[in-house]
Write a structure and sequence with these properties.
6-stranded antiparallel β-sheet, Phosphorylase Kinase, domain 1, D-amino Acid Aminotransferase, Chain A, domain 1, 2 domains, binds cytidine-5'-diphosphate, phosphoribosylaminoimidazolesuccinocarboxamide synthase activity, binds adenosine-5'-diphosphate, 6 helices, alpha+beta, 5-stranded antiparallel β-sheet
Length: about 240
């Protein structure tokens, strides 16, 4: 496999073409952004940590029968993936109230959500990823009703697998965001699963061990990501 030209540089990752039209290289950079790119910082080791974290989680999901784009690690910061036709809709499941939900609805942070909630957001930085619903997604052609149903079912299956995995490491999976795409017509999980796109709290102390440490200026961001990884069995360098 040969890495070719850069196709896209996002806020945290760069995407490269390969000699295979169906494969891409994702390069996990040290760049960290919050508030739709308003705050950017480089955090040493972050690219390596998130790349290895993501490959580990995607492997666990594959084992559970959830189709993912990950084909394998190429280096500390690079991953070979299937090239997906990305669906511009973010799927969020919440087990515990935090972040945007608390702000929007004025509910108590830390409140257990039974059953877990499911929300859709349009992936659009300029519009600050507005909340949408199935009707809007279908009408504007972002996804079909069948695709949305499949995305929702897969997002909940991910919850079953990962809630248990993190609980075994003494961690509470508070919420997370997933992005899906199409590969030969099949819905496949893309992008990344790392502490950048989810909330993880220590189950006992409720200490925040995810990107909220960066958003809230708490420090020890990458140390927290590594601690989470270590507790679930991710191998870092
Ligand atoms: P953003 O675009 O939000 O700044 P990133 O810096 O993470 O995010 O950039 C990675 C980009 O690659 C995202 O736009 C994501 O949707 C896209 N992407 C992730 N996985 C795949 C894939 N398998 N195929 C095509 N695009 C992908
Ligand atoms: O955290 P924020 O207030 O931006 O939004 P949220 O709706 O509370 O986010 C729910 C979960 O999805 C959190 O774990 C976020 O980290 C994640 N998310 C993300 O990774 N990317 C987005 N564009 C939006 C949410």
């Amino acid at each position: 496999m040969e890495k070719r030209q850069e196709l896209y540089a996002g806020k945290a990752k760069s995407v490269y073409a390969t000699d295979d039209p169906d494969r891409l290289v994702l390069h996990f950079r040290d760049d960290t952004s919050a508030f739709d790119g308003e705050r950017m910082e480089s955090l040493a080791r972050k690219g390596m940590v998130n790349n290895r974290f993501n490959a580990f989680i995607m492997g666990k999901l594959e084992e559970a029968g959830i189709p993912t784009h990950v084909e394998g690690l190429l280096s500390d910061t690079e991953c070979l993936v299937k090239k997906l036709d990305m669906i511009p809709v973010e799927c969020v499941v919440r087990n515990v109230a935090a972040g945007g939900l608390v702000k929007r609805l004025g509910v108590q942070e830390g409140q257990e959500l039974t059953p877990p909630t499911f929300e859709l957001f349009l992936k659009n930085d300029q519009l600050h990823d507005p909340m949408i619903n199935e009707s809007l997604a279908v009408t504007f052609g972002w996804a079909t009703a069948e695709q949305l149903a499949e995305m929702k079912a897969l997002t909940y299956r991910v919850n079953d697998v990962l809630k248990r995995l993190f609980a075994d490491g003494g961690l509470l999976l508070v919420d997370y965001k997933l992005e899906f795409g199409l590969f030969n017509g099949q819905i496949v999980l893309g992008d990344e699963f790392s502490p950048d796109g989810c909330r993880l709290w220590d189950a006992e102390t409720r200490e925040k061990l995810d990107k909220d440490r960066f958003r809230q200026g708490l420090g020890g961001v990458i140390e927290a990501y590594e601690e989470v990884g270590r507790r679930i069995g991710v191998e870092f360098k």
